[in-house]
């Protein structure tokens, strides 16, 4: 499989290079040159497979040529074997034809584990084969950092440095990062805010001379193709569990960077019958505004009860724009260069096409809380605030009550006790058993000043062969 850039000017790459590269040199994102397509008969034949067997069938066409079948199967068994539920992505029923797919049974209780647990293993495999080493550098305001750290824990060819704003992430989130033991894991608390952390990462990628040419930086952010690829699988899994592919499904997806829902769009293009895809956003609603009015315009960032969806622009949306423009990289480049300067629109017929592909809704904090409370009262089932947005959008946008509507449950409620309290519920969501001692575990992190040189010196002095 070859991968091409959404901006049309970077050379096509194979899977291994795409895995290590992140952003394409022309500023675009990599997408597969063509998608595999599965017939209904093939998909039907996957009924009853384990999650990791299904994952193999869905993903192998994307890695074929780079990773031998046997090694890929082993990687998938290890990745999904550590999830705390045998079904890996179990479904919970809320009502007739209304479901939540629990994607938070992985090691850090967020759906990002599905991709990052695999990504760490893929990276280590490719780096070992090439006898290379990388330093992963990232900034986190909470969730992604812990999933990335967990994912890299066993990597021999990767050191990971995650920057978080000192005293500005929740205690659960901090502990999930700082209690993971490993010589290759480095947590840095920066005396600054999340934007300061992000700026330092960006600056370091721009000039890597502080590493002395002995290793190189790699990114595991949500634009990495391998992350999208891993998220396609659970759409197939949910469908097969509920009578697919012989009936169509609807999905509602709590969305920030458009990675998770883009994976659903790909699942449909690969042959899975999906009759509706709902983009569910919080008040950071650039996607909902685009879908309702064909205007793509950045607003100021709002802090909400669903922080993992607090974004100003949705980076993976570029991958959809590429398809909407008939895969014309030059058109995408022009559009996004203009979008950096002010509001943009796309041709009306293209926008109408986008509206056929997706429905959308934006949900504010108050309605998020109402939904958490409502579902608890109806089902004694506790939603985290991100999943609650998905459920609310699903109920608002639903077209056909005979079609199963599946909301992607993106995080465990115990990670967001403040939202549960704001919903007026006096219950305290409990961490699952395998995390119950989180508050007793030993923490390791280094506090550094808000100074990029200090951070770079720390990295240069602390990676494996420094
Ligand atoms: C990352 C995240 C999202 C948003 O996912 P995208 O792929 O960025 O759209 C939603 N909910 C939770 C809990 C997350 O961690």
- Round the Cα radius of gyration to an integer and report it: 21 Å
Query: Portion of residues in helices?
Result: 40-55%
Helical element count?
Answer: 18
Stretches where pLDDT is under 50 for at least 5 consecutive residues are: none
Oligomer: single chain
Residue fraction in strands: 5-15%
Class computed from helices, strands and strand pairing: alpha/beta
The CATH class assignment of the domain at 88-109 and 226-422 is: Alpha Beta
CATH topology of the domain at 88-109 and 226-422: Rossmann fold
In angstroms, what separates the terminal alpha carbons?
A: 36 Å
The CATH architecture name of the domain at 88-109 and 226-422 reads 3-Layer(aba) Sandwich
Query: Biggest sheet, strands in spatial order?
Result: 4-5-13-10-11-12
Largest sheet features: 6 strands, mixed
Number of separate strands: 14
Mean pLDDT: 95
Q: Looking at the structure, what is the overall shape?
A: globular
Bound molecules: pyridoxal-5'-phosphate
Domain Threonine synthase N-terminal: 2-80
Catalytic activity: O-phospho-L-homoserine + H2O = L-threonine + phosphate
Protein name: Threonine synthase
EC number: 4.2.3.1
């Amino acid at each position: 499989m070859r991968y091409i850039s959404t901006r049309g000017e970077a050379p096509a790459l194979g899977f291994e290079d795409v895995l290590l590269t992140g952003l394409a040199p022309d500023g675009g994102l990599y997408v597969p040159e063509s998608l595999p397509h599965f017939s209904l008969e093939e998909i039907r034949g996957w009924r009853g497979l384990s999650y990791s067997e299904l994952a193999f069938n869905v993903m192998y066409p994307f890695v074929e040529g780079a990773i031998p079948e046997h090694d890929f199967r082993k990687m998938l068994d290890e990745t999904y074997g550590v999830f705390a539920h045998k079904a890996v992505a179990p479904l919970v029923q809320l009502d007739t034809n209304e479901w939540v797919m629990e994607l938070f049974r992985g090691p850090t209780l967020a759906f990002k584990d599905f991709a990052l647990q695999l990504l760490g293993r893929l990276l280590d495999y490719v780096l070992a084969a090439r006898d290379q080493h990388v330093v992963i550098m990232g900034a986190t305001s909470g969730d992604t950092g812990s999933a990335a750290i967990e994912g890299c824990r066993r990597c021999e060819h990767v050191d990971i440095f995650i920057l978080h704003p000192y005293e500005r992430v929740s205690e659960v989130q901090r502990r999930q990062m700082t209690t993971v033991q490993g010589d290759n894991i480095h947590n840095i608390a920066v005396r600054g805010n999340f934007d300061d952390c992000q700026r330092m990462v960006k600056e370091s990628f721009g000039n890597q001379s502080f590493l002395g040419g002995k290793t190189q930086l790699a990114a595991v952010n949500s634009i990495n193709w391998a992350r999208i690829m891993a998220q396609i699988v659970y759409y197939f899994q949910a469908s097969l569990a509920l009578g697919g592919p012989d009936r169509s499904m609807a999905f509602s997806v709590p969305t920030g960077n458009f990675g998770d829902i883009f994976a659903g769009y790909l699942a449909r293009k690969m042959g899975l019958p999906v009759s509706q895809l709902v983009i569910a956003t919080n008040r950071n609603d650039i996607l909902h505004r685009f879908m309702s009015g064909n205007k793509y315009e950045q607003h100021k960032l709002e802090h909400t009860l669903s922080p993992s969806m607090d974004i100003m622009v949705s980076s993976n949306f570029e991958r959809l724009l590429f398809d909407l423009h008939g895969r014309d990289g030059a058109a995408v480049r022009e559009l996004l260069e203009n979008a950096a300067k002010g509001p943009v629109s796309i041709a009306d017929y293209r926008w109408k096409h986008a509206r056929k592909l997706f429905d959308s809704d934006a949900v504010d904090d108050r309605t998020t809380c109402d939904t958490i409370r409502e579902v608890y009262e109806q089902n004694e089932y506790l939603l985290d605030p991100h999943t609650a947005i998905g459920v609310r959008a699903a109920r608002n946008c639903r077209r056909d009550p005979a079609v199963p509507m599946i909301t992607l449950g993106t995080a465990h409620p115990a990670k967001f006790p403040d939202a549960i309290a704001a919903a007026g519920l006096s219950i305290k969501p409990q961490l699952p058993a395998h995390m119950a001692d989180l508050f007793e575990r030993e923490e390791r992190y280094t506090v550094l000043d808000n100074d990029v040189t200090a951070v770079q010196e720390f990295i240069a002095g602390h990676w494996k062969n420094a």
